[in-house]
Amino acid sequence: MKKLLILAIMFVASATAFAGDSDALKAILKAKTYAEAENLLKTTLGQLANDEEKAEAYNKLVSLAMDAFDEQDKVRLTNQTLGKNDPVDTKAMYEAAYNALTNAMECDKYDQLPNAKGKIKPRFHDKNLSRLAAARLAVINAGVEAANSQDNVNGYKYFRMYLTSAESPLFAGSDQIKNDANLGLASYYAGRCAILNEDYGAAADALNVALNDTNAEIRNGAFDFKLYAMNRSQKTAADSAKFLNDMKELFKQYPNNEKVFGSLGDALLSQEKTAELIALCDANPQLPLAGIYKGMVAMNDKKYDEAIAAFSNISPDHGSYLQVVYNRAICKLNKAGDFQDSHANKNTGAMTPADEATLKQLLNDARADFEKARELDPDQQNVRWAALLRNIYYNLGEEEKYKELENM
């Protein structure tokens, strides 16, 4: 009896192994349109017998989507070749390309899984990798057209698909991706579209590829966008804590990037983590912003000589030089004020000639920096130097220069 039972079990297992396609798969494979096949797959996915059937079902969707894409793309190519002007449904063409890529990645997911014998024998990988090259180009074109039309929702959708497909196991490592010069551009514009959609988390994620682009303009713009998106994601105290940790991680990846260092420094400063900020600056003396932050901390602590020394090490070529000069001027003016308070007679306000000469020198030192700020920012668009410089002219007895600034 035991032997017969074993034989019966083997017979059942064998019958299962050689069973034909499930009814659910047969229905999907008979579908004539993408919409019909997609609906069948959505409603009967759980009825497919195994991963191999799921891969085949998704591959059917890829084929139907590519048929729809090719139908419009052939018209487009014929127009280009023969100078014709037959109508092309670009919206349908781009959507078909998007659908083909979406389903190809799902197909590949199941296609790469072990079969009933425990072996990985992908059936569709190579074919889909080859036939979807045109679809990938189509989605980046779709993103460009959408962005140019200020349709940032679809702009992000198509640019993001271009990136997602490149990162997928189906395409990653292929010659298509190794030689793809458009990835950084797609990343940059995906981030830009997401920011305009106010989806800051999606923007920060999409921009990662562009951070390493060989084009400096794309790379620098991507850092600006990413830091902006990360900063705008802060709404709660927990968000701020996460932002700080994320900035620390980003700085580990890009330790010589002043924009990242600046955002991290600002975060530490705003969260009053002064000791940590100073430690960060001491560890990165090669970055000019480190000196600026040390000057700002010393300035806030009223350690004016220390602040002046730190600010004086910043090159005039630095992008923040105007603010540096202005801050140094404030320090020098405050230093002059402190000197006057400590050396003037408490009752009369009078000072000795020697002290008056020292005060005059301190005011002239501050004056030089305020005048430099005036030269760099004559219309006070960034720093308000006029009132303070006018006050210095008054204290130095320079009436004409004082009057010159009365209306500013």
Structure characterization notes:
The structure is a single chain. The chain is an all-alpha fold. Helices cover 72% and strands 0% of the residues. The chain is elongated, with a radius of gyration of 34 Å. Mean pLDDT is 93; it is low at 1-18.
Write a short abstract of this structure:
The chain is mostly helical and 408 residues long. Helix content is 72%, strand content 0%.
Q: Which keywords apply here?
A:
mainly alpha, 408 residues, 21 helices
N- to C-terminal distance? 108 Å
What count of helical segments does DSSP give?
Answer: 21
- Give me the count of strands: 0
Into which percent range does the helicity of residues fall? over 70%
Spell out the helices and strands N to C: HHHHHHHHHHHHHHHHHHHHH
Structural class: mainly alpha
Rounded to an integer in angstroms, the radius of gyration calculated over CA atoms is 34 Å
Give the SSE map.
Layout: H1 2-17, H2 23-30, H3 34-44, H4 51-82, H5 90-111, H6 125-131, H7 133-148, H8 152-167, H9 175-178, H10 183-196, H11 200-206, H12 216-232, H13 237-253, H14 258-270, H15 274-283, H16 288-300, H17 304-312, H18 321-343, H19 353-376, H20 386-395, H21 399-404
Helix pairs in contact: 2-3, 3-4, 4-5, 5-7, 7-8, 7-10, 8-10, 10-11, 10-12, 11-12, 13-14, 14-16, 15-16, 16-17, 17-18, 18-19, 19-20
